Amino acid sequence: MNRIRIGIVGAGNVAARHAAVLSSFPDVEIAGIADTVLDKARVLAGEYGVPAYSGHEALLAAGSLDAVYVCVPPFAHGAPELDALSLGLPLFVEKPLALDAATAEKIAAEAARRGVPTAVGHHWRYLDVLDQARALLDGRPVRLALAHWLDKIPPVGWWPHRAMSGGQVLEQAIHVLDLARTLVGEVGEVHAVPSAATDGQEGDIDRATAAVLRFRNGAAGLLATSCLLGWKHRAGLEVQADGIALDLGEDELVTHTSEGRRVERDPGHARTRVDRAFVDAVRGTGDDVRAPYQEALRTHRLACALTSSAGLGRPVALEDGDG
């Protein structure tokens, strides 16, 4: 079996997770790992006996790649994707796509022009419990959606700074926004109300956000986020349709009906399945990429609209074709 050679840009925790999964596939070879902090690249590359590079340029220049993973902080997106696409390489990008909409739009346009396989790390789309939720909602349109991401500030220095992370809605809650689009539909208008950082808190990102989402199909939605805690308190999506209420998280689905309450645990395969689907797309042997770049761009536009609304202090409408 010919193995495909994948280069990884980024050497943080998310890159390490993908490297562990990819290295378990018999038809994949990790070709090299790049990071602007060379020591980090060396540590991760050393686990797999592959070269380390001080930036994506050197990784791409080394050649012999079949695909590239871009697992970098929000502020570092742009050049790695565009340079990989200039070589015609398939691209897996971790969310969020960028700090802003313009950078992601530019990458999306180039990916479409090149016609290469793409995927984005919205691994929640591969949850077994999401498939179960969709089946339960078949013929019963969602009328109310309650999305929440109530958590802590991750222990990385760039995260509390708006110019580097884009804020919690973009960096974390984008997972549940993507889930809302998947289960409910496209959003036409948002109105976000932020609670800013106070004196003594590191950085300048909002510490909490409450938002109203108006879906194009008539459903109503709410989003609540906070990074005030020392633990991950809650992250998921609740939806209600006629006669049924569902509470969906990364680990389980709780179903409420007049007959009672039922809990289904997810087997935990989503993080592997998202990588397997991309590898199969690159090999031309599968068609299960559930969030190609163009599709993930819709969720990114939605997150950017919420961020814009919070900053402007007024509702923001999304154009047709946006999230």
Automatic annotation (TrEMBL):
Domain GFO/IDH/MocA-like oxidoreductase: 144-239
Pfam families in the cross-refs: GFO_IDH_MocA (PF01408), GFO_IDH_MocA_C3 (PF22725)
All residue ranges annotated as the Gfo/Idh/MocA-like oxidoreductase N-terminal domain in the record: 4-122
Gene Ontology MF terms: nucleotide binding
Protein name: Oxidoreductase
Organism of origin: Spongiactinospora gelatinilytica
